[in-house]
Amino acid sequence: MPGKSHRGAALALVLMASSAAVSAGTQAGQATDMALCEQSRSWSHANSTQATQIIPQVSERDGGRTYSFDLGGRGGLRSMTANCGLGSYAECSVDVTQADGASYQFSEISTFGLWETPQGLHLVYRIVAPKDEAASNKRRVVKVSNPPQEICNQIGDYSSLM
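^ thats the sequence. predicted structure below, dont judge the formating
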C-alpha cells in the first residue's frame, strides 16, 4: 500500500506542476499580447523596426472600396482582399487565401492597416477622428488567422464612435 500513496502523491505533483506551467504560459501569452498592443502605437513611425506595413492596392467601386493585399507567402498566406462599404467605420468582407490555396472569410470594420511582425500578420485598428491624445493612442489588434484572433481591444464598442 505505501507504493500507491507515493504514486498518488507523485501524480498530484505532476498535475500541479503542469497546471502551473499552463497558467504561466497563459500569463506570458497575455503579457506578450499586451506588449504587442502597446508596440503597435509606434509602428507607423518611419524608424520602426518592429513591424512593416503592407500596402494594399485600392480600387473604388459603386458603394465601396476593395483593398487587395498580395502577401506572397508571408505568414503562410497568398493574398487578402477586403471588400468594404463607404465611410469611416464601414463593414468589410475579408477573403484570405492561404499559400496552399485554401481560403477563409471573416468580417471586420474598415479602419485597419495590415502589419507584419515577427509574431505574424496583424490588422491594427485606430480611432479615425480622435477627440484627444488618449483616444488617438487607442488600438485594436487582431491576428490574421483562421479564425482571426483579437490580441487586444483598447477601443471597445465602435457604436459610440459612429
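The longest strand covers residues 77-85.
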